[in-house]
Every structure is written in structure tokens, then in C-alpha cells.
């Protein structure tokens, strides 16, 4: 009997193959349904898309993989082509530190990131976050109608201004970093952004870093430049690796979260009214929106050694997609009615910021920005209505979900601030 | 078996049993205790499992690593002399430790 049980629980040697591609149009039409189908097949399944990869869709499998950097590496490697290993297919861009490294090599960079984004440092940014949010709303409030997709510029301008990069370039950063994740792979827009615009912006960041080396100030780039890596001064190249990661992490994700929450609240006026009447509920509501919408849907790892893992045999060099968004809809994560929004859900152990040593270092800032955007929209445009029939989602939603168009109408209001964007 | 008494900022008391080798964080999370968030799952990457340890229990716990010390500078509620990250507090044997959870972790 014991023997038989042992045989039964042994990992299957064949690969449970599914027809799946997180970059495909079919997936983008309904990512939630797409992952639900995968979970019904098993917590870890294999697809032949993009040279083949495991999809981890069950809460426990994702959690365990993300906590084990040796078994599931974030570092660049020859497996699956050239480029950034946390994406499938890989993207040939500037190296990003610490995400393109594993512990212990990642740790010196991670420590700098942690210090840069502590709750107290983020709290110091609150006036700037509130000002830019007010300015964006000022820009649209007199007309009574607007494309709420333009609010996606808020995290962009905040990130660029905070980094003390030329603030007038915020639209370029916003556009490029959104398109690289949402435009169809290989489309003219995608090629233009990856081959021309992002490299051009990188050159500008390099110039700013060199300038701060000569004239340090009270800004994050100077702060990073003041650190050592293993006993020697950090190089300008390494600073670029960190700054480029901050920009790409900060711009698209908050846009995705706030846009989707605004659309959902328009369709659920009862919940919107509760949030207007009880602003104290906003903090917990944002946690639930994080779980429900999972702005960063999934990121990849590379298997570090042959092993049995949650019922399958994974091999060194296999690529694996960790679908945070799917784990966040898995009842195994302790979520009652996971497909329903409960703004008072508690506990809520969502994985929207990832898990493990690479968990989002900017979560405090992301939360502050999302809370501020939602709070100010509800205060100043409490009756806004999204034109749901004319909403346009990103054509590709494998990494970030969100909207290219989010048209809304509302009772016009007055500007708050004297200055303009 | 280790035992932990958790007191929330509001004064709610929960006494929970764990297994040998569990951390103070794991016992809380397994039982759905709201005062400990532990976003990163125990990788010293989030500072959301902050607790204040009863003074006489401080010395029975494993000493603090440099990284835990740094991460404690990034807690939402400011650290005190008895602050620890509960994911680092692995318990063995029949210890009974007392911790307070802060008002907010995020």
C-alpha cells in the first residue's frame, strides 16, 4: 500500500501540454478565463509556444518557485535566447539590476533600492504625488469628458521628476515603456520603440548619470552613485542598470492598476459610493484591486536544476512563467470567492508585487500613487461614467493589463492649481 | 511545541501553536492573523512582518542579521529597540514568545 502511494505521488515524466501563449490575442481577450482553464489542467503545465515553457498557474507552485532563487533563477542565461530572462520571449534591452541577477550578486543593488523606497522616503514624496495627480485632473476637469487612459501619465511624470531626469520628457518615457509591454511583438510600433526610442532615452539617462557624478545633488541618482558594490564605487553602467529598472517598473504598473480600478468602479456604483462615503476603506480596497487586477500578470524564471516540482519533472534550463495573476484567483491562496471584488477582504495574501527576494521594491510608492489617483478622482469626479462600449484594451496583455482608451464623462468641475502641466 | 502570543495594536490577543522550526511569521500567516502581512513570504524583501518582541524574549531568539537590521529601517511603523522581522524568528522546542503587531504593515 505504501509502495503504491509512493508510485502514485511520483512526478509524471511526460509533460502535461496545453495550447497556451500569454502574448497571444486570444489570451489578451480574457486573461482571467485563460488562466482559469490552465488551473483546471494543473498547477504546472507546459506549452510549446516560444520554444517551450512551463506555466505556473497554481498559488502554491508560484509561491514556492518565487521563493527559491536557485531552482528558479532570474539571471540572464543562454537558455531561451539573448536578453532579459524575466520575459518570454526574452527582450534584448539594457540589463536591469537587481532583477537580472540572483542572490547573492543581486543583494548589494537590492539594498540600495530598499533604502531608496522605504515608507518614510515615499512619505516625503506625497506632496509631489498629490500635486501631479491634481494637475492631471485639472487638465481634463473643465470639459466634462476625457480619456482616463491619459491618467497613465501620472506615474510616469512622478517617476521622471523624482529621478530628476528632464521632466519635459515624461511623455516619451510613458509611451515607450507602455508600448514595449503592450504593443504586439514585431509590430512596427514595437520595433520603433525597442530599436529607436528606448535606446535614445537610455542615452539621455547616461548623460544625466555622468552629470550627477560630477555634480551630486539630493536626488535618487546621486544617492545610488554614492554607494559601493563589494568595496568599490558603483559604476555609471550599474547605476543605469538600476535607473532603467526603476523607470520600467514604475510607469506601466500603476497606470494599469488605477485604470482598471476606475473602470470597475464605474460599473459598480454601489462600491464606488461606499468608497466616497468611507475614504478609510481605500487602503484595503487598493489591496483588493491589486489582487483582482494583478497589473503585472506574470514574469519568467529559468530552472536551475533537474527536479520534481509540484507533480512534474522540470529540467535545468527550462523556462518557466510565474503567473501572479492566476495565483491571485486561486482559492488555494486562501481567497474566498476569488473572482469577486471584496474591498474589505482580510487577510489578502496576494502576489501582485511578486514574492521572494525580487518582490517589487517600489510597492510603497506604487500604493501611494494608486491610492492618490483613485481618491482624487472620486473626490473631484464622483459621478464619472466610463463609456464601457468604447473601451480599448492593450492588444497584448501577457505582462501588463490595461487600456489604450478609457473614455469617460462627468459633471465638469473647476481647476485647483494655478500652474499647468 | 512552540507557542506565540500575538497582541494587536488594538489590544486583541491571539495565542497560537506552531510546529518546531516554524517562524513567528509562518504561524501567524497560517492562522490568518491580520496583523502580519509578510508580502514577500520570508525573503527579507518587504518589511511587512514587523513585530515588537517582549523584552525578556529578545535573548532567546536568533540574533539579527545585517540585512534584517537594514530592512527594519524600512518598516511602515517606525522601529523600536525591540523590533524584529517575524519571518526571521524561527522557533524550536517549547518556547512561548510574546509579540505585539504594529498598527500598520503597509
UniProtKB/TrEMBL annotation, chain A:
<dbReference type="GO" id="GO:0016705">
    <property type="term" value="F:oxidoreductase activity, acting on paired donors, with incorporation or reduction of molecular oxygen"/>
</dbReference>
<keyword id="KW-0408">Iron</keyword>
<dbReference type="Pfam" id="PF00067">
    <property type="entry name" value="p450"/>
</dbReference>
<keyword id="KW-0560">Oxidoreductase</keyword>
<dbReference type="InterPro" id="IPR001128">
    <property type="entry name" value="Cyt_P450"/>
</dbReference>
<keyword id="KW-0479">Metal-binding</keyword>
<comment type="similarity">
    <text>Belongs to the cytochrome P450 family.</text>
</comment>
<keyword id="KW-0349">Heme</keyword>
<dbReference type="GO" id="GO:0004497">
    <property type="term" value="F:monooxygenase activity"/>
</dbReference>
<dbReference type="GO" id="GO:0020037">
    <property type="term" value="F:heme binding"/>
</dbReference>
<protein>
    <submittedName>
        <fullName>Cytochrome P450</fullName>
    </submittedName>
</protein>
<dbReference type="InterPro" id="IPR017972">
    <property type="entry name" value="Cyt_P450_CS"/>
</dbReference>
<dbReference type="InterPro" id="IPR036396">
    <property type="entry name" value="Cyt_P450_sf"/>
</dbReference>
<keyword id="KW-0503">Monooxygenase</keyword>
<dbReference type="GO" id="GO:0005506">
    <property type="term" value="F:iron ion binding"/>
</dbReference>
TrEMBL record, chain B:
<dbReference type="GO" id="GO:0051537">
    <property type="term" value="F:2 iron, 2 sulfur cluster binding"/>
</dbReference>
<keyword id="KW-0001">2Fe-2S</keyword>
<dbReference type="InterPro" id="IPR036010">
    <property type="entry name" value="2Fe-2S_ferredoxin-like_sf"/>
</dbReference>
<keyword id="KW-0411">Iron-sulfur</keyword>
<dbReference type="GO" id="GO:0140647">
    <property type="term" value="P:P450-containing electron transport chain"/>
</dbReference>
<feature type="domain" description="2Fe-2S ferredoxin-type">
    <location>
        <begin position="2"/>
        <end position="105"/>
    </location>
</feature>
<dbReference type="InterPro" id="IPR001041">
    <property type="entry name" value="2Fe-2S_ferredoxin-type"/>
</dbReference>
<keyword id="KW-0479">Metal-binding</keyword>
<dbReference type="InterPro" id="IPR012675">
    <property type="entry name" value="Beta-grasp_dom_sf"/>
</dbReference>
<comment type="similarity">
    <text>Belongs to the adrenodoxin/putidaredoxin family.</text>
</comment>
<dbReference type="InterPro" id="IPR001055">
    <property type="entry name" value="Adrenodoxin-like"/>
</dbReference>
<dbReference type="GO" id="GO:0005829">
    <property type="term" value="C:cytosol"/>
</dbReference>
<dbReference type="Pfam" id="PF00111">
    <property type="entry name" value="Fer2"/>
</dbReference>
<dbReference type="GO" id="GO:0046872">
    <property type="term" value="F:metal ion binding"/>
</dbReference>
<protein>
    <submittedName>
        <fullName>Ferredoxin</fullName>
    </submittedName>
</protein>
<dbReference type="InterPro" id="IPR018298">
    <property type="entry name" value="Adrenodoxin_Fe-S_BS"/>
</dbReference>
<dbReference type="GO" id="GO:0009055">
    <property type="term" value="F:electron transfer activity"/>
</dbReference>
<keyword id="KW-0408">Iron</keyword>
Amino acid at each position: 500500500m505504501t509502495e503504491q502511494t509512493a508510485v502514485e505521488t511520483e512526478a509524471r515524466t511526460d509533460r502535461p501540454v496545453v495550447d497556451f501563449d500569454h502574448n497571444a490575442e486570444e489570451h489578451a481577450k480574457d486573461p482571467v478565463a485563460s488562466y482559469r482553464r490552465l488551473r483546471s489542467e494543473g498547477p504546472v503545465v507546459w506549452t510549446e509556444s516560444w520554444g517551450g515553457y512551463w506555466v505556473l498557474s497554481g498559488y502554491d507552485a508560484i509561491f514556492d518557485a518565487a521563493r527559491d532563487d536557485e531552482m528558479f533563477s532570474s539571471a540572464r542565461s543562454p537558455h531561451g535566447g539573448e536578453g532579459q530572462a524575466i520575459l518570454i520571449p526574452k527582450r534584448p534591452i539594457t540589463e536591469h539590476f537587481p532583477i537580472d541577477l540572483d542572490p547573492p550578486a543581486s543583494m548589494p543593488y537590492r539594498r540600495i533600492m530598499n533604502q531608496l523606497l522605504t515608507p518614510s522616503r515615499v512619505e516625503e514624496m506625497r506632496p509631489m504625488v498629490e500635486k501631479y495627480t491634481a494637475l492631471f485632473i485639472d487638465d481634463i476637469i473643465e470639459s466634462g469628458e476625457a480619456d482616463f487612459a491619459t491618467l497613465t501619465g501620472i506615474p510616469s511624470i512622478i517617476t521622471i521628476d523624482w529621478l530628476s531626469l528632464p521632466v519635459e520628457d515624461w511623455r516619451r518615457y510613458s509611451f515607450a515603456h507602455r508600448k514595449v509591454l503592450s504593443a504586439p511583438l514585431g509590430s512596427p510600433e514595437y520595433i520603433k520603440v525597442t530599436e529607436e526610442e528606448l535606446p535614445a532615452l537610455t542615452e539621455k539617462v547616461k548623460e544625466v548619470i555622468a552629470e550627477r557624478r560630477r555634480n551630486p545633488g539630493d536626488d535618487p541618482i546621486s544617492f545610488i552613485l554614492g554607494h559601493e558594490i563589494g568595496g568599490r564605487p558603483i559604476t555609471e553602467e550599474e547605476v543605469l542598470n538600476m535607473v532603467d529598472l526603476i523607470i520600467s517598473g514604475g510607469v506601466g504598473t500603476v497606470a494599469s492598476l488605477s485604470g482598471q480600478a476606475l473602470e470597475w468602479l464605474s460599473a459598480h456604483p454601489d462600491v464606488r459610493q461606499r468608497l466616497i462615503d468611507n475614504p478609510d476603506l481605500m487602503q484595503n480596497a487598493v489591496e483588493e484591486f491589486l489582487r483582482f487586477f494583478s497589473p503585472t500578470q506574470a514574469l519568467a524564471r529559468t530552472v536551475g536544476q533537474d527536479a520534481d516540482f509540484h507533480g512534474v519533472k522540470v529540467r535545468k534550463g527550462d523556462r518557466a512563467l510565474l503567473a501572479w495573476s492566476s495565483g491571485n484567483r486561486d482559492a488555494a491562496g486562501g481567497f474566498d470567492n476569488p473572482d469577486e471584488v471584496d474591498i474589505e477582504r482580510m487577510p489578502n495574501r496576494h502576489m501582485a508585487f511578486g514574492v521572494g527576494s525580487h518582490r517589487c521594491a517600489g510597492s510603497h510608492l506604487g500604493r501611494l500613487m494608486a491610492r492618490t489617483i483613485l481618491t482624487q478622482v472620486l473626490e473631484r469626479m464622483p459621478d464619472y461614467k466610463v463609456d464601457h462600449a468604447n473601451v480599448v484594451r492593450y492588444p497584448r496583455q501577457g505582462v501588463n493589463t490595461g487600456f489604450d482608451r478609457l473614455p469617460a464623462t462627468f459633471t465638469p468641475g473647476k481647476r485647483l492649481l494655478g500652474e499647468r502641466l | 511545541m512552540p507557542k506565540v502570543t500575538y497582541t494587536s495594536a488594538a489590544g486583541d490577543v491571539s495565542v497560537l501553536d506552531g510546529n518546531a522550526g516554524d517562524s513567528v511569521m509562518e504561524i501567524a500567516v497560517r492562522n490568518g492573523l491580520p496583523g502580519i502581512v509578510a508580502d514577500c513570504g520570508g525573503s527579507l524583501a518587504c518589511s511587512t512582518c514587523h513585530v515588537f518582541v517582549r523584552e525578556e524574549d529578545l535573548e532567546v531568539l536568533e540574533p539579527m542579521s545585517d540585512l534584517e537590521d537594514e530592512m527594519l529601517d524600512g518598516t511602515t511603523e517606525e522601529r523600536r529597540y525591540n523590533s524584529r522581522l517575524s519571518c526571521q524568528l524561527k522557533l524550536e522546542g517549547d518556547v512561548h514568545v510574546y509579540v505585539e503587531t504594529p498598527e500598520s504593515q503597509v
